[in-house]
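Supplementary notes for students who missed Thursday's class. We covered one full example, reproduced here. Read the sequence, then the structure, then the short commentary at the end.
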Amino acid sequence: MRSLDDLLAEGVDGRRVLLRADLNVPLDGADPAPSARRAEGEAEAAHPLRVITDDGRVRASLPTIRKLTEAGARVVVTAHLGRPKGAPDPKYSLAPVARRLGELLGTEVPLAADLVGPSARSTVDCLAPGAVALLENVRFDPRETSKDGAEREALAAELAALVEPGGAFVSDGFGVVHRKQASVYDVAARLPAYAGDLVRAELTVLRRLTGDPDRPYVVVLGGSKVSDKLAVIEALLPTVDRLLVGGGMCFTFLAAQGHGVGDSLLETDMIDTCKRLLSEAALSAPPPPGGGQVGGGPPPTNKIVLPVDIVVADDFSAEANTRVVPASEIPDGWKGLDIGPESVAEFAEALSGAATVFWNGPMGVFELAPFADGTRGVAQAVAGSDAFSVVGGGDSAAAVRQLSLPEDGFSHISTGGGASLELLEGKELPGITVLESR
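Structure (token representation):
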């Protein structure tokens, strides 16, 4: 596929470049002093700006944007935020993102009031070489996510028209390349298309995991539901040395072993599936090269490793009563909200001997202080290992930053949770396929 460097070699000075970025950041609360940088003539926002709680994805977009602006391109950024229902919704406006992007770039980043309408055209027409503008949330237009190819193509044509004639498209939102959407797939099929540095870096790292990773290869999976991770579990189970399972999904596995899980999160329709996975994994973990064991201790008897103790609470709140109990003894009326200290120690021991680690999903409700220690302990073990370590985006990446863990302790922190998992599952990513075909 053609790269950003290929585009720069062709020359972009004065050209308009449409950049698909992933700026889908978490927001919380309201800004006490809203000052959205909007295109001239737009009415003041009806609601105060919400506050970005993790700007990791905005920061990740900076290198590609800077390369383009330093080469004199007029950069038109398109992105989504949240899941609006195909219509403008102030709650999902990109105004907070435009402001933060401007702060990080040290320059004003105007936000068009619409996606492809009069404000967008006026904003783009006013762009000087080396300047950046942001179009309003692409998912405010129902054609972006339409299953009707003709509808998506019509929107793609309007987006392309903003940068034509002589325009180009750079795909740098890895978090959306698994979506066949107008701003990801159809625009790339219409304009000269190039992969941004972020997309290329993500592919290089994740394909290393799906090729011939150094062993022992240990995967840590967390998050809420087994059903969300079933495909990646089935894809990884034959190839990994150990699969450590935490988060809300562990309780369905514990139930599959016959344990009561109290009021913990439980997918009853997935219990039989978990039984099958545990059966397939039993006695299937070979010793690491050289005859040693992963992390020391006796030879593993199952590739799937579950928590041995759980932090339970009588309520889902930071003020709840809590205690640590064996994983097989969760009392009725209590819910598991984190893995316990013995589980952290066992997971850390397995991780200490790993050569390659992939971690996706928190070990508990890390946003609440009483239930953050499991995620923190596992993250510290990953960062402290000598392994080539990949954090699989989404909540895991947010946890690294929220818990103030050093990002340089990990080999790579992905920006695309869903895209990362689908690539590991072996699925075709439409946003990559179209780039490879150009």
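Commentary. The mean pLDDT is 90. The chain is about 35% helix and 15% strand. If anything here is unclear, bring it to office hours.
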